[in-house]
From TrEMBL:
Protein name as it appears in the record: Glycosyl transferase family 1 domain-containing protein
Domain Glycosyl transferase family: 201-293
Single Gene Ontology MF annotation: glycosyltransferase activity
Domain of life: Bacteria
Amino acid sequence: MGRIIYVSPRTKAPVGGIRTMYRHVARLRHHGFDAYLYHVDQGYRPDWFQEDVAMLYTADLRAPNRLRLEPDDHVVFYESASNSIRFFSQYKGATRHLFCQNHFLMFDALHDLGAANWQALDVERCFASAGIIARAAETCLGFPTVPVVPYAIDHVCFRPEPKSLRIAFMPRKRPDDLEFIRRCFSGAFPDLAHVAWTEIHNQSEERAAEILRESALFLSLGRREGFGLPPVEAMASGCLVAGFLGIGGREFATDANGLWCEDDDLVGAALKFGQAVRWVESQDSAASTMIDAGRRTASRYTIETMDAALIKYWREATLSVQPQPLSARAPRL
């Protein structure tokens, strides 16, 4: 059985999709697969989460007149991996996969490279991180079957603790909208001016989880999401969640587990969030009921569930029986 090489984006910012790639590699190696994370910057390892995975860099793969790849290797691209696709095109023998975590980005590399479809880039298989993404990829990308490997939440890290009346939020997807929403909130609910707002931005996974554990509420600012992990992590942490789903959040959202509003209904978001704060502050039973529903939703996203789908996908993709432990194999590099 060959190697499985996930190509990471170059960005070093904390992003849930990148965290998921590293988690896949770690779990694959745990189950005996020869899996690696490829990063273009020599020696780079992320410092914003704790996951020690096997890394490959350009120098590890480059050889005179070719790449150090074998026919039984597998290379996993992300949606906008244009430069890495060019790099790996120096060798045609390995099997290419697309791991699609956001259907809003699924044409990015095709546009950059002037390709009609992913198959023209020698990508043979696709898998996705949510059902809504898989359905889009099957319909629009020409892959007959797109298996889903669902997200996993670290429930040891993202867990409820005693709360303070604090609003946690991640502004990355809607920085301008956030100011509008906060002004609407202040105008409509002047009596709630004492409520603290805590930003989560460019912080470690542990620090983000700590803020969620301590915060009673989470304002979801998703936009054009493939899934949208932050509100589910907030649910797991026992927050009352309100705000936007970014389309992809329809995968997990119900009327019971959050106060959701239509995308770009900024005034509506402020009003719903004011309602959420009032529920929490008055200890209304509606708040505890919704928080409990959110925790039940988040409980579906476990390492065990992800592992089952991940291992099934790669066993089928590699046509492999039970892989040998890594300690029993000679090194490839």
